[in-house]
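User: Just a sanity check before I run the rest of the batch. Below are the structure tokens for the first item. I only need the designed sequence back.
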């Protein structure tokens, strides 16, 4: 019998996600580790009915009506009400809220429903906390005030990088003693393996949602500079727009870039191990991240990364050891870093090897799952 197995019934954990597909894509290793440890695993998320749960037959699913882009007060109160009813029915021993809205609403619902062991994981501060215009500043103020109330009721909050944790502590949103860093969601280092470089013209791969906040516009501008200098390479985009995000890039813009020969747009892809094996360089010049899954997968695949010196990215990429970091929004610096790697195969190999070692040591799914299981156990023991 494991710690999580009790004489009368196994202890129950509820994961709350913004989408069932996000759970199966990014938290599958944690769910399996929880099942293997003896926990009864529940998932509360939108689209559990339509998402393929192959391999997750033992996970008990509960549908949640949640719109990531909604800010209407009645809809948001409705989400909290749904969670309160579900918690009272399921009677979980631990709830684990993942991403901003589940953390915010789930913490309030858990307090009402009397759930004592609450873990919240902020997977990045996203659109709300990236500097912008007046509307974004107002939204940030409202969300910060709500988080301060929600996170004051106890529980434990984890962050995917130390910068986000420090920011929350400095702003008085969370107590240092009730927060920690668990780096990312974990990458499967058995699925993403180090591969030899393919032959041919160097390929720069971007695997992410097509958002302006991911630095996509700056990357296209940098590519134009390099082509004007006669640098030979291919720029491949694997990912789709996200209409629920205000920073989403329209399809028409992506098609325009493709028709002008600036990019090759593949759309949404599920075969990232294969795409990384076919590229030479991974690139994500984002404005801010939690811990970018794409960069962790690229590191595990032995691909050098070019990214920005911002929260999240600088945790995934170690400058001059696993990749190159440049200032955010700086086209010239991005072009220089890309050109270094495009023209230097020895540098690519050295950084790629460093990336693989970094992934095995810090970013693997085994490391992340073990950290969360220890946290659940400590919280239950304290209870």
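Assistant: Here's the designed sequence for the first item:
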């Amino acid at each position: 019998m494991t710690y999580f197995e009790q004489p009368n019934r196994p202890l129950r954990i509820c994961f709350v996600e913004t989408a069932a597909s996000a759970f199966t894509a990014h938290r599958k290793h944690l769910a399996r580790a929880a099942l293997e440890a003896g926990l009864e695993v529940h998932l509360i998320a939108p689209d559990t009915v339509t998402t393929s749960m192959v391999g997750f037959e033992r996970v008990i699913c509960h549908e949640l009506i949640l719109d990531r882009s909604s800010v209407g007060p009645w809809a948001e109160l409705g989400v909290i009400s749904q969670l309160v009813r579900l918690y009272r029915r399921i009677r979980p021993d631990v709830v684990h809220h993942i991403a901003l809205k589940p953390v915010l609403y789930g913490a309030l619902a858990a307090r009402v429903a009397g759930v004592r062991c609450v873990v919240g994981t902020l997977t990045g501060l996203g659109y709300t906390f990236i500097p912008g215009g007046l509307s974004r500043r107002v939204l940030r103020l409202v969300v910060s005030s709500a988080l301060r109330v929600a996170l004051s009721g106890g529980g434990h909050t984890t962050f995917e990088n130390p910068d986000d944790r420090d920011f929350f502590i400095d702003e008085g949103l969370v107590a240092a003693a009730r927060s920690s860093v668990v780096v990312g969601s974990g990458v499967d280092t058995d699925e993403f393996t180090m591969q030899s470089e393919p032959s041919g013209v160097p390929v720069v791969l971007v695997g992410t949602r097509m958002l302006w906040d991911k630095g996509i516009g700056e990357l296209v501008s940098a590519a134009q500079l390099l082509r004007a200098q006669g640098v030979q390479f291919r720029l491949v985009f694997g990912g789709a727009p996200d209409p629920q995000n205000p920073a989403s890039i329209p399809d028409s813009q992506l098609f325009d870039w493709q028709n002008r020969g600036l990019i090759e747009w593949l759309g949404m892809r599920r075969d990232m191990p294969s795409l990384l094996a076919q590229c030479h360089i991974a690139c994500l010049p984002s404005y801010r991240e939690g811990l970018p899954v794409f960069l962790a997968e690229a590191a595990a695949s032995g691909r050098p990364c070019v990214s920005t010196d911002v929260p999240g990215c600088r945790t995934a990429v170690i400058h001059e050891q696993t990749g190159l970091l440049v200032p955010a929004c700086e086209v010239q610096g991005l072009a220089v870093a890309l050109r270094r790697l495009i023209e230097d195969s020895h540098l690519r190999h050295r950084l790629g090897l460093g990336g693989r070692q970094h992934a095995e040591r810090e970013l693997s799914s085994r490391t992340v799952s073990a950290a969360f299981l220890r946290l659940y156990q400590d919280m239950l023991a304290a209870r």
